[in-house]
Design goal:
Two copies of one chain form a homodimer. Chain A has seven helices and three strands; from the N terminus they run H-H-H-E-E-H-E-H-H-H. In chain A, strands 1-2 form a two-stranded antiparallel sheet. Chain A is mainly alpha-helical. Chain A folds into two domains: 81 residues, Winged helix-like DNA-binding domain superfamily/Winged helix DNA-binding domain (Arc Repressor Mutant, subunit A), CATH 1.10.10.10; 83 residues. Strand 3 of chain A pairs antiparallel with strand 3 of chain B. Chain B binds a DNA duplex (28 and 28 nucleotides) through helix 2 and helix 3.
Amino acid sequence: MKAGVANVILGALRQGPKSGYDIKQLVDNATRFFWAASYGQLYPELRRLVADGQIEGTSRPRGGRQRTEYRLTPTGRDALRTWLREPAAGWEVRDEGLLKLFFAGALEGDDALGVVRAFRADREGVLRQLRDVQRREAKEAEGFPGLALEYGIGLHEWIVGWCLEIEERLSRQLEVAAR
Amino acid sequence: MKAGVANVILGALRQGPKSGYDIKQLVDNATRFFWAASYGQLYPELRRLVADGQIEGTSRPRGGRQRTEYRLTPTGRDALRTWLREPAAGWEVRDEGLLKLFFAGALEGDDALGVVRAFRADREGVLRQLRDVQRREAKEAEGFPGLALEYGIGLHEWIVGWCLEIEERLSRQLEVAAR
DNA sequence: GAGACCATGTAATGTGTTACATGATTTT
DNA sequence: AAAATCATGTAACACATTACATGGTCTC
């Protein structure tokens, strides 16, 4: 899971030169759902990649506003392609909603049901966000970025559906128990 | 996303008293897929929870082997139930496989297809692990822990299915392009 | 002229993993 | 008798977020 930010930068720059700010926008818009990055990571890593010869920075002021635009060097392009061909290092999830679901047995029937409902509500929120992105970026998000977006939407649709099923199952059990 | 380990400990102890080692086993067996915890977090947090009156530790040697068994105090039980009723703080994913998928356009057709295939292979691996857990813990994993497991299995089945579809779609595109 | 946005950066803080250290017991 | 498992703990390190600091420009 090491050197993650570097790959985000390299990948972002492939679609054309960008400032640190631009990269942050891309991250917040798209990759944040599976790979977040803060300025505190981005800017130092940009310098490191320049020092390492993987990217080059040019001063490109916009109006009177200073701005450094970065682009890939051939070395950087190779590094990106090499990384893409390597097996993925890993996968980490930290999901408080699921943790609550796991322990929901500590609550009584209807409160436990509430945990599932809250979990679903959260995922419906994410689903809405993803659909907003899809609407906004209909043009830009073609090819693989669009595929990743489709993945996220489909995944969250599945999750919401699963929750609804479980909620029904639990409701029926509660009814039976109440008799 | 703060104080996460505390809730894992509280939840784990609800099903009966446990040593730090026991809790680590539970984490590695079950919650690790959505909430991991290392000894470096667990042991200090156990002390903190004792100091805070949420759990109590008793020396219960097993043979000549020292062992401290922890159990919930009423305070701890309340804290667990309160936490369960609160809205979930969040949700974080760091998925290198998806990041590669997102940038796979930097590779040529069949290499890009390889990224999807590698992604699927990884998820098939996780699916196998989850099914192993299900087989091993058929008895213990009833109720909500079992539900969380079902969720994980269903989710990964969906993912594998999605990958197969995409692989076909890309294959067809490659064939057309080759003509 | 106020507020949003573009733009860059760092320091403090928080969080979590890895490696190391130690030692008993049980299984093969 | 070796290897695996039970059991507890800490120190060093890696990684990431948050808050802060600064200042220009664009839009209402």
